[in-house]
């Protein structure tokens, strides 16, 4: 059973930083690309970042380029999203998942950016 446990969210002021973690299980983590998406109420889930199985390819959304970075550790079955210089428009629930799989998601972690 594919499972993701996201953590690290919270409330921060604009300009602050957070590091989200996602521990995955139920599949061969080291052979799959991973992704982070986010969602706000009333909107579709949107792409944030992706990383290939062996970290040789990463891509982040234009809206977070230069502020967010994605990384992973295949020994820990964990993928991270480092978020710097947070803005109010980054407020959302953040989810991790397997690249190419839109059926399995974790419970998400709430990020709120507000002064």
Describe the structure.
The protein has 115 residues and is mainly beta. The protein contains no helices and ten strands. It has strands at 3-7, 10-12, 18-25, 34-39, 46-51, 58-60, 68-73, 78-83, 92-98, 109-113. The strands form two sheets. A six-stranded mixed β-sheet has the order 2-10-9-4-5-6, with no helix packed on it. A four-stranded antiparallel β-sheet has the order 1-3-8-7, with no helix packed on it. The N and C termini lie far apart (40 Å). The model has no long low-confidence stretch (mean pLDDT 97).
Short description, anyone?
The chain has 115 residues and is mostly beta strands.
Offer a few descriptive terms.
115 residues; mainly beta; 0% helix
Largest sheet: 6 strands, mixed
Enumerate the spans where pLDDT stays under 50 for 5 or more consecutive residues: none
Strand order of the largest sheet: 2-10-9-4-5-6
Task: State mean pLDDT (0 to 100 scale).
Answer: 97
Shape call: globular
- Our estimate of the beta-strand percent is over 45%
Class inferred from helices and paired strands: mainly beta
């Amino acid at each position: 059973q594919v499972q993701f446990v996201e953590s690290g969210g919270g409330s921060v002021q604009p300009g602050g930083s957070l590091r989200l973690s996602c521990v995955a299980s139920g599949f061969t983590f080291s052979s799959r690309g991973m992704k982070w998406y986010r969602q706000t109420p009333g909107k579709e889930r949107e792409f944030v970042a992706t990383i290939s199985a062996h970290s040789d390819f990463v891509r982040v959304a234009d809206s977070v380029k230069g502020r967010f970075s994605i990384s992973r550790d295949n020994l820990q079955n964990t993928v991270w999203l480092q978020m710097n210089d947070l803005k109010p428009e980054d407020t959302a629930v953040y989810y991790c998942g397997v690249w190419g799989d839109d059926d399995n998601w974790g419970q998400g972690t709430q990020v709120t950016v507000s002064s």
